[in-house]
Design goal:
With 180 residues, the chain is mainly beta. The protein is built from two helices and twelve strands, in the order E-E-E-E-H-E-E-E-H-E-E-E-E-E. This is Beta/gamma crystallin 'Greek key' domain-containing protein.
């Protein structure tokens, strides 16, 4: 199933629009700004900076009439990634320290508190082997979000945070039936 998201320059789906069915690294080449959007199918991660940087927010089918009010980030959406539907198992190795150091645990399901479940104070690197995941800076799936697709991430900068101070405290699998 392909995804489809429509971005609008103004709040409440007003102004010029741009329809997207894939990744878009720079929405400003299509719109002056983006202050609302409608996800007609699929799942997307939207970013408040170009090139998939900055604050991230997971969107699934639905209407988002006021970007700033609903998501609480910068002035508007600047880029987006379509999240492919994953039908297989989910598997990730998380590490306490950068460069795959310290404690290691293999994760196959959602975790609302890394510290409570794995007795790790935080996660600073990981290897996503199967599936797509959203990482959260706080327990109970709260705080800033980061999208991870399969690959090795040696530190939080490689995870797209651009911030050495960022740590992850909970994680959730991205599947079409996941509750977000």
């Amino acid at each position: 199933m392909n995804g489809k998201i429509i971005f609008y320059e103004d709040r409440n789906f007003q102004g010029c629009s741009y329809e997207c069915s894939s990744d878009c690294s720079e929405l400003s080449s299509h719109l002056n700004r983006c202050n609302s959007c409608r996800v007609e199918s699929g799942m997307f991660m939207v970013y408040d900076r170009p090139n998939y940087m900055g604050h991230q927010y997971f969107l699934r089918r639905g209407e988002y009439p006021e970007y700033q009010h609903m998501l609480g980030f910068n002035d508007c959406i600047r880029s987006c990634r379509m999240i492919p539907q994953h039908m297989g198992q989910f598997r990730m190795r998380i590490y306490e320290k950068e460069n795959f150091g310290g404690q290691m645990h293999e994760v196959m399901d959602d975790c609302d508190s890394i510290q409570e479940r794995y007795h790790m104070p935080e996660m600073q690197s990981c290897n996503v082997m199967d599936g797509h995941w959203v990482m959260y800076e706080q327990p109970q799936f709260r705080g800033m979000q980061t999208y991870l697709r399969p690959g090795e991430y040696r530190n939080t900068r490689e995870m797209g945070m651009g911030n050495d101070e960022m740590r992850f405290q909970s994680m959730r699998r991205i599947s079409s039936d996941a509750a977000f």
